Amino acid sequence: MSDTTRFSVQVNARNNVRDQHISTCYKRSMKEDWFQRLEEVIEADGRSLRKLSEDAKLGPNFVQQLLKYRKDPRASQLSKLLDALGKPAEFYVLTGSRLQPVDIEFLELVSGLDAAAVRDVMTVVRRFSAPEVQLERQSAECD
Q1: CA distance linking residue 44 with residue 22, whole number of Å
Q2: What is the residue extent of each domain of the chain?
Q3: More confident position, 67 or 8
Q4: Which of 40, 63, 98, 106 could be stapled to 49 by a disulfide with Cβ–Cβ 3.0 to 4.6 Å?
Q5: What are the C-alpha distances in Å from 106 to residues 19, 41, 60, 89, 95?
Q6: Contact 100, 88 (CB under 8 A)
């Protein structure tokens, strides 16, 4: 019976090492993805690295050091930097999806509604995004 126990422990240990390797690779990949997006939005921003650091209320060389040494910022620092870059940039860095200003406005409006109003808005949006409605709109545009 102890042989079976040892064997199962060895199997679990081997699987744990494999799972940990997969987890490490995933985390490394995720870090690279969001960090590359962060670099992209910083470059597109147009402000100098020093000005961006100051606007984020971080040290004057924070952004320059962050990019140069590829440091992992604390959550509070990243939050301040993303606030300075704006909501569309923040959403892109964190999710990889781009939002237009109208998308941000819509999300802000909906977030201020109570639960019943959100359900009503979602019903309307779903109705307009249903495939048959889209086909009706396309045929109406062709007429």
Answers
A1: 33
A2: 2-112
A3: 67
A4: 63
A5: 40, 22, 34, 16, 18
A6: yes
Write the DSSP symbol of residue 8: H
Burial class (CB in 10 A: 0-12, 13-18, 19+), 62: buried
| 6-28 tens-digit pLDDT | 544 444 554 554 445 444 444 44
> pTM here?
0.60
Residue 93: count of CB within 10 angstroms of its CB? 22
Does the 2-112 domain belong in CATH 1.10.260.40?
A: yes
- The number of residues making up the chain comes to 143
In the chain the first and final C-alpha atoms are separated, in Å, by 79
Beta-carbon count within 10 A of 52 CB: 19
